[in-house]
Amino acid sequence: MQQLHSHLITTGAHSHCMDVTSWNVLFRHYSLGIFPQEAFLLFRHLRLHHVSPPLSFDSFTFSFLLKACANLQHREGGLQLHALTFKLGFEFHVYVHTVLLNVYAACGAFLEAKQVFDEMPVRNSVTWNVLITGLAKWGELHLACSLLDEMAMPIVVSWTTIIDGKTWMKQPKQALALFLTMFLDEGIKPTEITLLAIFPAISNLGALEICQLVHTYGEKMWVHRECIKGLWRNSCQEQKLGVSWTSVISAFAMHGMAKEALENFERMQKQILKECLKPNRITFLSVLNACSHGGLVEEGLKFFATMVNEYQMSPDVKHYGCLIDMLGRAGRLDEAEKMALEIPDDVVNVAIWRTLLGACSFHGNVEMGARLTRKILEMERKYGGDYVLLSNIFAGVGRFWDVERVRRLMDG
User: Please, where are the H alpha helices in 169-280?
Assistant: First the structure.
């Protein structure tokens, strides 16, 4: 996709011949990818340079830009887009305002989130769930429960979110009571995620009979039998299998729940003395990924050191990539570059340097960006996205002569 972007820039197609639907493909790619900040750079570029005819951005454009804001937890960007969408007539668009609500909820800005929610003339189930999830994530479970009570027809996602929140806020009795109300009183069938959320609460209460009932129900669902058995052993029998722990840690990491991922890793470590459990390379990769996306830099560095020094594991390129990404997201670019230079030659590849280059683009570090681009081009010249990132870095600090120089290099 970056190659397509660079081709459009070099051919001048960005200035006249593509409609907004085509550009939305790029907006979607960037907003959902590892460099969501590129969506904003593209948006700014198109507003400045697309002259014939002027682009009329639609609801999809702003939905993708707002998704990028949520992924970056960029409250100020959300405020600016909020004003722009209102100005352009999207104030009553349910999908745009649901994504806007998600931005504020992701940032913990609940005054703004509640204002958006209250002003929406039409709300769908996604709208309700976005606010409930945001409240539960930030520990506002009382408010989340109040919203659940207001919903005309709560769905399983709504219930599961609050059940999970109560479990991790050490309220196992309330979590179990909510689960039973959902299942027995409301007749809503739990999903695999619901079972994952309720098992720790059942375990903390020592409710073996309920655990066996839930386990039996789980085996009747379209769930992998070994996964359910692993979770059952995990929570009811306290036979903590390494594979089960790794699966749970990985699940939390993939959903951006860094705190929960680390809590489970620590629980796993406590079992090591009892049952000879040993985290594997995938376990540490999941933990590092959680630290990267959760902004937990010091914790990530500590776990990396534990992996290397205590467990004598040799990191591969994925472990190093998570570490570089984690430091880059936090703006600790010098540390990230120093670590990248220390990666063994038989492990390092161009993806490591591209990860760091993306961080330079986000933080506007021109000198390091230029240095890394030269290094990347020494390793691989065929990928046009590297030129695009460097061009964006120069454009972000107003060095437009250098932007033109990079484009001439692309043409050559």
Answer: 172-180, 192-205, 208-220, 225-232, 242-254, 258-275
pLDDT digits (tens, 9 = 90+) for 87-145: 888 878 888 999 999 999 988 888 899 999 998 988 888 899 999 989 988 888 889 99
Alpha-carbon gap, residue 263 to 261, rounded angstroms: 6
At residue 95, the 3 state secondary structure works out as helix
Which one-letter amino acid corresponds to residue 408? R
The rounded distance, in Å, linking the Cα atoms of 42 and 61 is 11
Half-sphere CA count of 122, side-chain side, radius 13 A: 8
Backbone angles phi, psi at 76, to 5 degrees: -65, -40
Partners of 51 in the β-ladder: 54
Tell whether pTM > 0.85: no
Q: Is the peptide bond before 54 cis (omega within 30 degrees of 0)?
A: no
How many CB atoms are closer than 10 A to CB 408?
10
How crowded is residue 203: how many other Cβ atoms within 10 Å of its Cβ?
19
Token pair 């506007």 is found at 364
Q: How far is 112 from 209, CA to CA, in rounded Å? A: 44
CA gap 118, 148 in Å, rounded: 15
pLDDT digits (tens, 9 = 90+) for 165-194: 898 888 989 999 999 999 888 889 888 788
Residue-wise pLDDT for 375-400, tens only, equals 877 776 554 555 566 666 666 656 66
Q: Which of 18, 17, 15, 42 is nearest to 28 (CA)?
A: 42
**Using a CB cutoff of 8 Å and minimum separation of 24, what contacts does 84-89 make?**
88/57
Angle, CA of 284, 289 and 171, to the nearest 5°: 90
Question: Which alpha helices (H) appear in 315-399, and where do they start and end?
Answer: 317-329, 333-341, 350-363, 366-379, 385-396
> What is d(CA 281, CA 141) in angstroms, rounded to the nearest whole number?
35
- Residue pair 387/378 in contact (Cβ under 8 Å)? The answer is no
Nearest to 43 by CA among 59, 65, 25, 21: 65
Query: Could you give the angle at which helices 258-275 and 281-294 cross, rounded to 10 degrees?
Result: 150
Residue of 110, 42, 101, 107 whose CA lies nearest to 71: 107
CA distance 38 to 336: 20
Return d(Cα 58, Cα 297) in angstroms, integer: 37
